[in-house]
Amino acid sequence: MTILAAWRQRLSILMTEKPKSPWGNGGGDDGDDAGGPRNPWSVPPGGNRGRNTKPSALDEFIRRARGPGGGGGGGGNGFPGLPGGQAPRTIALIGGALIIALWVVFTSFHVIAPQQQGVVTFFGRYSATLDPGIRVTLPAPIETVKTVDVQATRTEDFPKTGGEQNLMLTSDQNIVDVAYSVQWYVSNPQDFIYQIAEPQETVRATAESSMRAVIATVSLDDAIGSGRNRVEQRMQDLMQSILDDYHAGVRIRGVTLKQADPPAEVIEDFKKVIAAQQEAASNLNKARTYAQQIIAHAQGEAAQFNLAYDQYKLAPEVTRRRMYYETMEQVLGKTNKTIVETPGVVPYIPLPATRGKAPDIQVTGKQGGGQ
To answer: Averaging pLDDT over each range in 20-29, 168-177, 208-217, which range is the top one?
Structure first.
């Protein structure tokens, strides 16, 4: 009971005691509490402020911040000269106008490089094509511009990596490993953007199908030999025809057949076959050259005979004698000769001794055996 009575006494004291302010007692702002700190905003001890007392720097700052409207509850909310509630609205309008101006500038002015052309769309529909230079359009999304490089030459390699094989079937049922490249550029930016979804993949697919179609019409010898130029030209024409049918806006600049070999498994044997074919071709060329020489020689002799026959018809006896002399000269000019002119005398001549002697031997004698 004693403890309960003590707690009741303390509670009554707390209920009746007046709370103290950190700036002094609760009696007023002007009072001075000896037991606590003095209120810095209250009138200093000794009475009210004098008329000549200057306001402090803090008071001057608060007055300027409040503006001519007076206290902190009214006026321009910290912005002098503006009615209450209009300052945030004005700032929002200025910021919105600035954003709109930047948006118009960045979406209406377009710089088209010399190698480019710009495709303009009006609400998604094609409108015009812009030439190089600084061009102006309506801001996005009313009009949008897509730039396309129309001068760059793009190259597609088949196959993409050097270690892969690209096997195709020729018209004579042989397999050939083909490596080639295609050079192309954009000729119509409008069609290039809107007619085909994936231009590069479309060009690659067209090139591969065209090459297979052309290789299927040539033999193995033409594909790996002298027919390469024809294969390249036919493939380029076929590719251009297909892309024009697609309205792809692409122009094929050229096709280069870099490799056309048999498969790697049989390439060594194929090289031996090629070497044998080349040797056979060389021998055939030599035989043809020899035949042409023989024919030319025979034709020359025939021409000489015709000339001699013409002379024979004009003077048969003279021509016959001249031909006889010329023939005997050709026959006897290559042998050793012994001429005996004395009639009725048979001199002793060691005929074996005359063999192999170049000079001719002439024996002359008198009739009747005179000395």
So the answer is: 208-217
